């Protein structure tokens, strides 16, 4: 008989130094998100309608929706399409809660892709409340206080990274944060283990190996 397989079990109370989320909180986020995604199209539309209602000026960023009563846009394919893009971004966050380097890179990309289009830090701040409000409508009793608090904490990370990247874009960057330190530490550990980062791979070969 072969050697028995051993599985590594993560402690529910272990906390990520970058996000501040415990493994238990990450599990709550994943499970609630899975429930949310069961009605993905409907919830994507609801998310954008809530954004238009709750975030001043957000609807005006979309020329085709400007001046229209948000409730009249519930059947709009364009609204659903944009909502699905927001949902896809949130889905990537959920999928990469344990991959900090990838998570931060994605959020920085979101900042760079949105900044030229007009959304402000305030819009991203408002989006946090919009997400929670949408969860309250779509998840009902499944959105317990523990689940809600986990999402509030997770969105705090999202907002922090995006706001910081906006500062970089606008030339108002501050001193390196704990996120920078942890990512740098992770890269050093990878080097010690003989692993090659994406950037290093591109520098040596001109492309990233699949």
UniProtKB/TrEMBL annotation:
Domain of life: Eukaryota
Domain Globin: 20-167
Database matches in Pfam families: Globin
UniProt-annotated stretches for the region Disordered: 173-210
Gene Ontology MF term list: heme binding; metal ion binding; oxygen binding; oxygen carrier activity
Biased composition, class Basic and acidic residues, residue ranges: 182-210
Keywords associated with the record: Heme, Iron, Metal-binding, Oxygen transport, Transport
InterPro entries: Globin, Globin-like_sf, Globin/Proto, Mb-like_M
UniProt record similarity statement: Belongs to the globin family.
PANTHER family: GLOBIN-LIKE PROTEIN
Protein known as: Globin
Source organism per UniProt: Holothuria leucospilota (Black long sea cucumber)
């Amino acid at each position: 008989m072969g050697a028995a397989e051993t599985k590594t079990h993560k402690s529910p109370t272990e906390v990520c130094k970058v996000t501040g989320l415990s493994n238990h909180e990450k599990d709550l986020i994943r499970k609630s998100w899975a429930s949310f995604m069961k009605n993905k199209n409907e919830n994507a539309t609801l998310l954008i309608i809530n954004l238009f209602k709750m975030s001043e000026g957000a609807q005006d960023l979309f020329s085709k929706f400007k001046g229209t009563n948000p409730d009249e846009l519930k059947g709009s394919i364009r609204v659903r399409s944009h909502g699905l893009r927001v949902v896809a971004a949130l889905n990537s966050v959920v999928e990469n809660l344990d991959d900090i380097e990838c998570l931060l890179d994605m959020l920085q990309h979101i900042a760079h892709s949105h900044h030229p289009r007009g959304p402000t830090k305030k819009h991203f701040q408002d989006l946090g409340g919009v997400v929670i409000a949408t969860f309250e409508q779509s998840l009902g009793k499944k959105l317990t206080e523990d689940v809600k608090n986990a999402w509030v904490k997770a969105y705090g990370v999202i907002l922090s990274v995006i706001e910081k990247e906006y500062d970089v874009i606008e030339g108002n960057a501050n001193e390196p944060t704990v996120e920078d330190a942890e990512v740098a530490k992770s890269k050093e550990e990878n080097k010690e283990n003989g692993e090659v980062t994406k950037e290093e791979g591109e520098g040596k070969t001109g492309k990233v190996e699949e």
